[in-house]
Amino acid sequence: MTIAGSDPSGGAGLQADLKTFHQHGVYGTSIVTLLTVQNTHAVSAVQTIDIDFVTAQLDAVVSDLPPTAAKTGALGSAAIIDAVAARAADFVFPLVVDPVMISKHGASLIDKKAISSLRDQLIPKAFLLTPNRLEAARLTDQNVVTIDQMMQAASTIFAMGARNVLVKGGGMNDQAVDVLYDGKRFSLFEAERIDTVHTHGTGCVLSAAITANLANGLTLTKAIESAKRFISTAIQSGSGVGNGIRPVDFHSPI
Ligand code: PXL
Question: Where is the Pyridoxamine kinase/Phosphomethylpyrimidine kinase domain (predicted)?
Answer without folding.
Answer: 7-249
